[in-house]
Every structure is written in C-alpha cells, then in structure tokens.
C-alpha cells in the first residue's frame, strides 16, 4: 500500500524549496508518496487531486525537502579526524595555521566536493556551508564550484577573510 502525505502550511506556512525554478510559497504544500517528493506548490493547487493523501498540518512551521544541516564545513572534509586527540587550541592552530594556508585551489574544490557528497550520502540534502577559504577569493570560488558539482542544495557563507570577495569588502559577511 502506498504511503501518500500532503503537508499543508496553513496561513503562515512557508515552503522553502531552494530551487529558483520552483520558488518558495506562503501557504504552500508538499506532496510526498512512498518517501519521494512528488510535487511542491501552492496549497490551493492540491485540493482536487490529493484526496487520498493523509493531510499533515504544518501551520506555523517551515517545510524543507530533506534533512537540513545548518553548520557544515565541507571544505574541511579531508581534515576530519586530524585533531581527534588534540585540544581545541591545538586543533585550531594546526588546522587554521598549517593546513588551510597550504591548501591549493584544487584541494579546496576536492575537499568541498567530497564533503558535500558525504552529506548527500547520509541523507542531508540542504546545507549552510561555512567557508574555510581564509586566504583568497579564488579558493572560495573553488568551494562554490564543488558545491555546485555535487548537486547539493547549499547556502554558502563567506566572511571570515580579510580579502574582498565580489562586491563585499574584506571582513564583511556576504
């Protein structure tokens, strides 16, 4: 037997797709069947063709497709376990003072791609990725490309560098 659910956001419900071709919806709905999202849109568009779906009221909530990780550092995937037996001070000094400055643009791309693919493999479909490219905008571009190439939904945070990045001056979050 098929498991079919219609998540309806109610008056203040908000469906965040992170897909520019679909957009986001106030008073939105998500139709899922057998664990797969079949449709996303305005709640009013689903009333006629979803009578066999169990209605889940998500009023006052936010519906996002998949698991969301709001503190992911994909570019550090290749250093995982490096400081498992170190104090925080030693880990930070070894990672931020030794590894990151020695990381090439290609290394940054590879680490980010691996980190994003690991997230997807574990069921995380959306991440807020904190940038570790403390030394150049080119490294940040490589991180962005790694995220794009992985296919993960991501919000990328750049802002700890003193270098400018695009329209943002050094030291400001973008």
Automatic annotation (TrEMBL):
Entry keywords, A to Z: Hydrolase
What top-level branch of life does the organism fall under?
A: Eukaryota
SUPFAM superfamilies named among the record's database cross-references = Composite domain of metallo-dependent hydrolases, Metallo-dependent hydrolases
Q: Which residues form the Amidohydrolase-related domain?
A: 62-143
Instruction: Please report the name of this protein according to its UniProt entry.
Output: Amidohydrolase-related domain-containing protein
Q: Which organism is it from?
A: Neonectria magnoliae
Q: What is the lineage of its organism?
A: Eukaryota, Fungi, Dikarya, Ascomycota, Pezizomycotina
